[in-house]
Amino acid sequence: MDEKTSVGVIGLGIMGRRMLEALSSHDKFYASHIWDPSAVSVAKATPLAPEAKVCDNPAAVIEGAKAIYLACPPDPRRLYAMIAADCGKPLFLEKPLGINMAASRSMVHHLEKTRVPAAVNFVQATGEPLAAIKAALQSGEMGDLVGIDIEVSYAQWPRLWQKDAAWLKLRSEGGMTREVISHFMFFAERLLGTTHLNWTSPIFPDETLCETNLSARLFNPDGLPLNVFANVGGAQPDKQRVFVKGTKKSFKVEQFSELWVSEGDRFSQVVFPSDNARIDGLHVQLDHFDKCIRGEPHLLATIQEALSVQEKIEGMLAG
């Protein structure tokens, strides 16, 4: 049996802790070193990886582990990624790739120069809904693709389970467009190819807080539309869905991993996530990260794909 690869985790908020849980039950990786500037986050994380060394700084994590997972906010993530790449450590990055386009382009160029294996955690990259839709499109089962709609709606932002990540409510780094719509932008560009922004209309409550409403339209090189609708507020359940529309069949993705299909009538569910879907999805991502490290073909989002997504996300927020 191959020896497990040690992973250093920088950033122990909700995403970092979810990854620790996934690493603790994976057959190819384990968490060996962890760090976060918040003592509260460290205290919440240590029971999930009791054997991991709690480091005094991110440099110690990078030095001690064979691969690095970065779940810290976007701005410091860039610096840690370049330091890890210079040390030859494979990288698994949280999304969004960044918030400043010039800085992210510089980081991508730096990572490409080092040739270190690197991928971004858009979890739908390895999910069953995307694979099923791609297969239906390639086989002709869904007919011609005519467009994609992204719809996101929340009663509040950040959501209750994100309350510890106060930065998510700020315009500088947070917001639902970066945190959620970026996932669906990646999903859409895997089907449509690279898109370009045609128009956008974000609404911000003030100069410091993140967006509460956003509408945008993008097109791919063939002129197929990608429509984005997002809002926060009101007594309602959270809604996250993507409609992929074809001339014979259309698909709806709900809550990241449910898949529904329609031939013109009501949607019927065809993919039912397991009770442990979130960790199962991270396990598959880690399977493909192992392939990435080994130089084998994989389905994870590349840093170039993540940069393309960031360009559209920051363009939408710029208005």
Estimated structural class:
alpha/beta
Q: Roughly what is the average pLDDT, rounded to an integer?
A: 95
Please name the CATH architecture of the largest domain: 2-Layer Sandwich
> Which strand-content bin applies to the residues?
25-35%
Report the helical percentage: 25-40%
The H/E string reads: EHEHEHEHEHEHEHEEEEEEEHH
Characterize the main sheet.
8 strands, mixed
In terms of topology, how is this protein built?
Blueprint: E1 5-10, H1 14-24, E2 29-35, H2 39-45, E3 53-54, H3 58-64, E4 67-70, H4 74-86, E5 91-93, H5 101-114, E6 118-120, H6 128-139, E7 145-154, H7 176-192, E8 196-203, E9 213-219, E10 225-232, E11 239-246, E12 250-254, E13 258-262, E14 268-271, H8 277-294, H9 303-318
Parallel strand pairs: 1-2, 1-4, 2-3, 4-5, 5-6, 7-10
Antiparallel strand pairs: 7-11, 8-9, 9-10, 11-12, 12-13, 13-14
